[in-house]
Specification:
This protein has 195 residues and is mostly helical. The protein has nine helices and no strands.
Amino acid sequence: MFFPLPGLEGHLPKLQAILVDLSTIDDDDPLMNDPEVPELRVILMTLKVIFRKDVAMKVKEVIEALKPYSDDPDMRRVIRRTWVYLANNAKYLKRSLMTLQSTFEEVIGERVMSTLVEMWLAEGEAKGVAKGKAEGVAEGITKGEIRATLKQRFKEVPQEIKDAIQSMTDLVALESLLVHAENCQSLSDFAEALK
């Protein structure tokens, strides 16, 4: 990455990082259950199980364990952000969104991201009449994720982009667009991918 110049080797960046493989840490490890820092368990367990099939069950256990701390505004913020992260990233959560949403709502005592989930499910069920419920739900959820990601990253999303996303029916293309929405540099860059 850097052109070496004689005599300046000591000034080149080392670019070293410590990586921790959370999958090797046992769920009951004391590190994961520090009573002084309960939010650490939420964060570590969420990162640990995000790509596992049992993500909904594990996250539900962790969130339920936080109920005693739910009056703390900082903890409520952690719980809300965890929900947003999960709703946008957990591949195996799509089947359990409503169950997990009710757990989040029960713990913090308010509706969290409900309008986004309701929008995904409504779109999915409408498509489900024509295409089969499971495929329609997955399509609706993916479209909702794309719009939510763009809105989070760029604030305002032009109507023509929303309409183009809405008109798409190919789930593979939609999933590819979701990845592009997470990584594109601008809305115009994303719009190019829609063509």
